[in-house]
Amino acid sequence: MMNQRLKHFRLGLGIFFLTFSGYYLPTYLQPKTVLAQPTANSNPAQNLEADRLFQEAEQSVGNEAQFINALTKYKQALRIYRQIGDTPKATATQQRLETVLATSLPLAEKFEQEIDKDEAAFLRQFPKTENNQAANQLEEFAATQLGIRFFGRPGEYPWAISESQAKAFEDIREELENYLTTQGQNPGGSFSEVPPKLRDYLDQNADKLRAIRTLLLENESPRWATDMSWISEGDPAHVFTSYLGIGSLQKLLAIDILYKQQQGKMKEKQEILEASWKFGQSFKNDPLLIGQLVNIITIRYQIGVMRKLDGLPTAWQQRLLEHDYRQSLLQALTGESLHTRAIFRQHDKLGSNLEDFGYEYPLDLGWSEWSEPMRQNFLRWEGIAYYQMTKQISTILPQENSCSFSLNSLRSMIEPAYGDLLVENSWLYSLWIRAGRFMVDLELTQKILQMKEVGSSSQNIPNTQSTICPNANWVYQFIPNDRRSITLEPLPWWAADVRGLPLIHTIDLNRN
């Protein structure tokens, strides 16, 4: 699981993005001219470019506010010299980089003290807790009765997994996901009948699903154990829980909601929806990035189902937008970046095999030729720069419109020297866009429920401005045969991504 998680960082690590105050480094870091004499090579233009980068690094390395920029230029120059085969200059540049890294330790400690304060604040926000009774009961029941594991790792789970039930669920997993995805992608208000294989599973497990519903509705909201000590420990071997069981149970609840509507069991339908929502909301402030992503995915199944339901209470319209999942995701990114910084600080745990870590960026800088102290100092600065970059991005994004803000827009707002390198960390921006799209999905679901509530009188609903996309409107259109559609105009640039729910919906006014 750790290797899977680190794939997110494969392109991101090693970006230097930092804005410092205008202090100066000690005299031992003042610029020195150490370039070797020019040598013949096959690409003079590249050699001149590398020379320029090196000299710019020398001019700025003594300025604390420009130190990260100087390191970046040293690395760019070193990479070019190695690519064109200018060994003397590559050797001289590597030696200079090693000296700069070694003598910058006091500055590194200064910056790390500031990051340590952020880490302490984050850990205070998420103190260590244990499952409450409702969480324990739900987790045990799902494991022993449905064969669904929520969190534990093999050999560590406190409850015996029902192998027969686990197999029964595995047999329907693919069809279940395909059915829910297909229904969610349908922009109309109707849904296809639940397939026989899925109906059989729901019928055979009706009592167990009813027990889960009762457990969720009649007890306090589940509170899940939290232990964020892995952040400061910085252990690359730390195994993260998958949360896949959470999604599995939510999919079962989602299809059971549609099945109850198909059967005309309206009271049970609303009870299951209530239980499913309560379950999902227990993860809305989860401090782990994987927890936030899984919760967005599973709640999207819920709202895809809600768009097909009739007669939901008005209270649901307010509930849908009570929480901003963009903020939760950015909060979880803080923990991720703190952990990455901690890993870089503990070079002995990382070892020298960067490929295993999913971090291959320094290999073409001659990593195998570096001394161990140089590697350690290099990674230390990588961790500092990575955290500061993430923090800066997390400060910029909440102020922007996730429906129109692009990666190029973000690049234009940061220091120009790092604009091109931001592409290597584009996954940070992509996650925020995903959360923004989810908020639009929630808002459209709210508008659909409002149309269903007013029924045939919805022919006169005026267009309304989106609260998530302030430059767009929800546009209503009357369609012959007593139907009405709603869509967002103009559509965001990411609307063509078929993985999300459709941003247009049509309802039959006579059905609601």
Keywords:
single chain; 512 residues; mainly alpha; four-stranded antiparallel β-sheet; disordered N terminus
Whole-number average pLDDT? 84
Return residue spans where pLDDT drops below 50 for at least 5 consecutive residues. 1-40
**Shape descriptor:** globular
Q: How many H/I helical runs?
A: 20
Report the strand count.
4
Going across the biggest sheet, name each strand in turn.
Answer: 1-2-3-4
The N- to C-terminal Cα distance equals: 46 Å
- What is the H/E order? HHHHHHHHHHHHHHHHHHHHEEEE
Strand content: under 5%
Residue share in helix? 55-70%
The rounded Rg comes to 27 Å
Secondary-structure content class: mainly alpha
What kind of sheet is the major sheet?
4 strands, antiparallel
